[in-house]
Amino acid sequence: MDPIKASPDGDEQREEVTRDCLCDERLAVLDMAGVGHWRIDWATRAIKWTDTTFRLHGLDPADGEPSLETFRTMFPEEDRARMAAAIQQVVATGQEQHYRLRLNRHDGVQRHVMVQARPELAPDGALKAIFGAVTDITDLEQQVIQARKDEARYKLLADNVADVITRVRPDGTSKYISPAIYNLLGWTLEEMSGDPLDYVYPPDRRKVSKAIQDALRTGEQNRLEHRAVHRDGTVIWVECTFRATVNAQHGREDAIVVIRDISDRKAMEAELREAKERAESAAAAKSEFLANMSHELRTPLTSVLGFSNLLTSSKALPETERGYVHRIATASKALLAVINDVLDYSKLEKGAIDLDPRPFNPVQLTDDVREIIETQCAAKGLALQVAVDPALPASLLGDEGRLRQVLLNLLGNAAKFTAQGAVCLHVGGHPGDHDDWRLKITVTDTGIGMTPDTLANVFERFAQADPSTTRLYGGTGLGLAISRCLVEAMGGRLSAVSQLGEGSTFSFEVGLPLSVGAAAPLRDEIGGLKGQPRILVVDDTQANRELFSTILTKLGVQATTVDNGAEALNALRFGAYDLVLMDVQMPVMDGLTATREIRRLEAPGDRRIPVIALTANVQPEQIAHCRAAGMDDHLAKPLQMPLLLAVLSKWLG
Q1: What is the reported pLDDT for 591?
Q2: Under a CB-based contact definition with an 8 Å cutoff, are residues 363 and 388 in contact?
Q3: Predicted model pTM
Q4: Residue closest to 223 by CA, chosen among 211, 213, 235
Q5: Which of 597, 600, 564 is nearest to 582 (CA)?
Q6: Percentage, residues of the chain above pLDDT 90
Q7: Of 441, 426, 445, 443, whose CA–CA distance to 383 is shortest?
Q8: Residue 494, SS3?
Q9: Distance separating alpha carbons of residues 112 and 56, to the nearest angstrom
Q10: Residue 3 confidence class, pLDDT cut points 50, 70, 90
């Protein structure tokens, strides 16, 4: 308050009363706010306190006003000197003073107070009293102390972590940056410009600035990977985390940015990408090699197997020569099995094998497999024992071809590794819980058996007992690995038990839905054809053209042959054909291009002529390319008669 000065007129007393009233009202308001007031009469040294002042000092107003000496003893010695010096300044200068004191209350609690003191003058200008206010600032002091401790702790942390920590103002300048910046960019804080964007790789500055503004605008944390420029001019990769700080008024004051060097991680990611690209390139090269190998081997095998089968069926062939041809056919089938194993495992590795569930008769499947294995067993003097459970359903829904492949693998191995005794096949099972049949198949032999170590690895690819096993019995070591993958794809598990010198037993169980439809048997002749169909055979190999023409003629089909796609288009322009058997890899014009041209030339409403791929390209992606070009079906070389008959019946019946 302003010092009270004397009034020269007669209204002085009324003016003082009015002021006193106003002062009482102000004091009441300040007391409510927790601010205590005091007054020391300078002449008498008497002290006057408000109730709030008593409360702040831990005293009871009923005990009366304290003496000046009692009041002084409530402060530590050094604080008394500070208070005396402040009072002297008030007396000497007539100006208000502010000072902080530690207050030792009578209840033993020490508090921190802020004291204000100002002079009150008499009408003649003499010092009448010293008036002041006292406020408890203990909590505020504790907050300041804690804040200083936190700041020191955080600064110590920021100064010693490997990551760089900086505070960026809304205008983009930096308030603080940790010493780790030297290890990151080669600069010290004193050497830096104060603008963090100066050290960002120029093309990335816009997105860094946006990340800072987004953090300040939304209050949400965000991350950004960008490039920074080292003092030596090299470019490094960093990851930044941006988060806004909030002041007491809940305003976003600046952004805390944590910067981490991720150059090593980026280099590793680049190496991984390169390694992935190299692996993909190697996989593509492997697939291309397998496809080419398959094509180059299947093409001559088509003639070898085809003509040997024709010779075997010839009644004019002497018995001795028939035996020679049979050996050729058997050897060719063995070679084809090796090719199929390699291709199948490649497909399984890529997850490219899809099952084709269709109704089939498990008893008929067992008979077919027995007929194939009987010759192999008979040649070695082995007994082939087949047991079929009478309760076996007449029709199941499953991939008959893959089941046959597994059975032939297991039975073929059993016959191969058994010198004397028997090979046994048991086909049975039991009803499942979901309208299915748990088909269980067991193959047992009395062969050489396996050691525990060999048994542990028997389903691994290329696994054989030892090099002598391969020399004595042959094989690629892929058959069991493929069989295991196929059984697992059907939802089962292929297992084996064996003892060295006493034989082995392989078994698996798969759940197959019961089929309400009858299984379609494999045909030995075309059924349901009208008239004498005309088929155009397109193949660039003379031997294949002769083979296919002979087979089709025996089936009662009129066959015309050409050796490339261009000639096929010319033949179709001038002749009427019911179906085209189209090779794929041919000179002049390949089969895919020819098929696309056939589809382009077909007029709307015209009959669509079936085009069947007859090719050594058997990989899933190759078959997909055939269908994408407009081909309707696919037959693999070497040609299998049952499949040829099924396809011709499907499209010509």
Answers
A1: 95
A2: yes
A3: 0.49
A4: 211
A5: 564
A6: 27
A7: 445
A8: coil
A9: 10
A10: very low
